[in-house]
Amino acid sequence: MIDAIGYAAKHSFSRLKPLIFQREPAGPGELEIEILYCGVCHSDIHQVKNEWSNTVYPCVPGHEITGRVTRAGAGATKFKVGDLVGVGCMIDSCRSCASCQEGNEQYCEGPNSFLATYNGPMLPAAQATTGANMYGRDNTYGGYSDVIVVREEFVVRIPDGLDPAAAAPIQCAGVTTFSPMKHWGVKAGDKVGVIGLGGLGHMAVKLARALGAEVTAFTTSADKEGAAVALGAAHVELEKDAKAQMEKMAATGGRFDFILSTVPEKHDLNPFMVLLKRDATLVVVGALEPLAPVNNQQVAFHRRSVAGSLIGSIAEQQEVLDFCAKHRIAPDIEIIPIQEVNAAMKKVEAGDVRFRYVIDMTSLKEDREAV
Ligand code: NAP
Ligand code: ZN
Ligand code: ZN
After folding, report:
1. Are 189 and 148 members of one domain?
2. Which ligand places an atom closest to the C-alpha of 222?
3. Of 70, 114, 211, 325, which is the most exposed, with the fewest CB atoms less than 10 Å away?
4. Residue 126 burial (10 A CB sphere; 0-12, 13-18, 19+)
5. What's the rounded mean pLDDT across residues 119-128?
6. pLDDT on residue 129
7. Residue 208 belongs to a domain with what CATH number?
8. CATH number at residue 38
9. Are residues 186 and 42 in the same domain?
10. Quick one: which of 78, 68, 74 has its CA closest to 32?
11. pLDDT, position 239
12. Given the CA of residue 200, which atom of ligand 1 is nearest to it?
């Protein structure tokens, strides 16, 4: 067994604290990876606080991982020891259902869906007492740790030219915003709206801009206006008096081909619906919960759509990394030691981050020496 150290929440209102635990060594087709960096996604906070009512404790979050391969299990040939690699939100899936066969592992139709990088069983708490899941493993522990073991098909290559620390958030924030843009065909010349300028939203602005779109950022934070322009937004709209402002915008033309909402909680989509062109789609990736009702008159009369989207496939994860390297874009990050992760999570909740915290995992050595 591998002696690992990570930061874990013990219950829904606990701070993250050091946890020593064991991981299975790399089995056939698996890779052992030394974790170098891990991004702090807002999903980590939802999960730690059990806001999706499915957290299994102890919970070691983290699914924006950059690391180095330290050992390859039997038959694992995709990478060699020393390679710089990435791991995102999935470390396995059933690999046999239609979605998996089509390369859409994030929509795995197996009984437990894909195997999440952390909180793997994804079972209702009442059924999760054993911690076992369909893959025969215990609850998975994520990237706020020094080592992880992953099936090689779920590991991606960090391309040359990408800073390893900045590459980490591309594994979730990058692919989650890139995948719907690809699926709904965002292209050069399109007008794209991005709601919420956090970890996901700021990547959405950069990616849409690099795809050649004219981007409008919708933000609740007046002090992000300058930053939004620096990220590549052609226009910035403050979401103050949203309804009146949007109706005015809609009346003066300038409707959108695609709008992406990254807001992490229930919010009113109606002011944004009126801004869509005929046949255009507003995709919600932020709030994974029941949303306020949408006025179907605004939807039906213009054949508009409201849709959701979940992370992205492994192929898309590789594609967005390569896309970022090619277009020389990367998340704007602030590197922190793991000992500051609780304070960082509070700042993310307060919207006080520009734009993603990334944990330097060498800082875990301090806790290792202390135990
Ligand atoms: P984040 O860094 O906290 O950014 C969210 C941004 O939304 C904030 O910076 C803020 O931007 C805006 N916002 C926050 N509260 C708001 C409110 N009440 N009304 C309007 N705007 C608000 O979070 P993140 O890491 O980007 O994650 C965003 C959400 O996506 C989380 O809920 C996360 O769980 C989810 N997520 C989903 C997927 C998926 O597969 N669908 C994948 C990853 C993450 P402004 O200051 O600009 O307004
Ligand atoms: Zn995430
Ligand atoms: Zn499957």
Report:
1. no
2. 1
3. 70
4. exposed
5. 56
6. 47
7. 3.40.50.720
8. 3.90.180.10
9. no
10. 68
11. 79
12. 26
Write the single-letter amino acid at 78: K
Q: Please tell me whether residue 304 adopts helix, strand or coil conformation.
A: coil
CA 249, CA 317: separation in Å to the nearest integer?
35
Q: Is residue 315 part of a domain?
A: no
Structure tokens at 289: 């919960």
C-alpha 41 – ligand 2 centre gap (Å): 5
Query: What is the structure's pLDDT at 131?
Result: 47
Structure tokens at 184: 């709904």
Do 103 and 182 contact (CB within 8 A), yes or no?
A: no
Residues 18, 83 within the same domain: yes
Is the minimum distance from the CB of 304 to ligand 1 under 6 angstroms? no
pLDDT in tens, 28-69: 999 999 999 999 999 999 999 999 988 989 999 999 999 999
Which residue has a Cα nearest atom 13 of ligand 1? Answer: 263
* Gap between the Cα atoms of 56 and 12, Å rounded: 10
Could you tell me the pTM of the whole model? 0.95
Quick: pLDDT tens for 250-268. 666 659 999 999 999 999 9
> What is the CA(305)–ligand 1 centre distance, in A?
21
pLDDT band at residue 122 under the 50/70/90 scheme: very low
**What is the span of the domain harbouring residue 192?**
173-308
User: Per the structure block, which two tokens stand in for 244?
Assistant: 């009146």
What is the whole-number distance in angstroms between the Cα of residue 177 and the centre of ligand 3?
Answer: 22
Residue 313 belongs to a domain: no
Q: Are residues 269 and 362 in the same domain?
A: no
Of the chain, the percentage scoring pLDDT greater than 70 comes to: 92
Alpha helix positions (H), 238-309: 242-251, 270-273, 296-300
Residue, of 137 and 18, whose pLDDT is higher: 18
- Ligand 1 atom nearest to 308, measured from its CA: 41
Q: Is residue 361 part of a domain?
A: yes
348: tokens are: 């993310």
The answer to whether residues 178 and 153 belong to one domain is no
Contact 255, 277 (CB under 8 A): yes
Alpha carbon 252 to its chain's center: 35
